[in-house]
């Protein structure tokens, strides 16, 4: 029974004292480990591409973890200051604002930090994305068109498919019930 009581006590403690920031940071840590590992296990991809992608994914999560923590804690402190007179309300407001802070980090802060930091880090490590062919194909411009070539072609105005003999409606699209 000691193990069952320990599990119950641990679950109760986690349920009462859990903060949204901790949950998201744990998810980011797992993603920071598993995504690069699974990327490196892909046997069909080019080894250089795998290294670049795995390192980029890992760096993204290394940037994300402190960003989640900072935004969540900052939002929680704002709630504590705003609702310090009512302890029960302050606790709920703190957790709700922490959640909003974590969401703001995911939507705005982390993409901004990644766009600023990852490219210089990858360049210093000597890893660059696979270059695309930067040559622009030359397209020949047609000779001047004559007025006869500019006249519109005759087109059929009725573009509905053939009608069934049993119904007067065109048989296209999603039909719900009935005919």
Q: What can you tell me about this protein's structure?
A:
It is built from five helices and no strands. It is mostly helical. It has a domain at 7-124. Helix 2 packs antiparallel against helix 3 (47-82). The longest helix has 38 residues, at 87-124. The N and C termini lie far apart (65 Å).
Overall pLDDT metric: 81
Number of strands: 0
The share of residues in extended strands comes to: under 5%
User: What is the approximate shape?
Assistant: elongated
Radius of gyration: 29 Å
Order of helices and strands: HHHHH
Task: Chart the SSEs and their pairings.
Layout: H1 2-17, H2 20-41, H3 47-82, H4 87-124, H5 147-150
Helix pairs in contact: 2-3, 3-4
Give a quick set of tags describing it:
179 residues
Quick gist of this model?
The protein is mainly alpha-helical and 179 residues long. It has helices spanning 2-17, 20-41, 47-82, 87-124, 147-150.
């Amino acid at each position: 029974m000691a193990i069952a009581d320990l599990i119950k006590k641990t679950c109760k403690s986690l349920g009462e004292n859990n903060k949204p920031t901790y949950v998201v940071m744990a998810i980011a840590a797992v993603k920071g480990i598993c995504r690069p590992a699974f990327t490196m296990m892909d046997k069909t991809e080019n080894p250089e591409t795998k290294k670049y992608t795995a390192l980029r994914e890992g760096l993204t999560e290394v940037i994300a973890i402190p960003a989640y923590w900072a935004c969540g804690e900052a939002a929680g402190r704002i709630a504590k200051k705003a609702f310090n007179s009512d302890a029960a309300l302050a606790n709920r407001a703190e957790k709700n604002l922490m959640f909003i802070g974590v969401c703001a980090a995911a939507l705005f802060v982390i993409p901004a930090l990644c766009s600023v930091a990852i490219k210089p880090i990858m360049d210093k490590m000597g890893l660059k994305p696979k270059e695309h062919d930067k040559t622009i194909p030359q397209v020949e411009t047609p000779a001047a068109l004559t007025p006869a070539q500019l006249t519109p072609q005759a087109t059929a105005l009725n573009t509905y498919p053939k009608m069934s003999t049993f119904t007067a409606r065109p048989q296209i699209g999603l039909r719900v019930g009935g005919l």
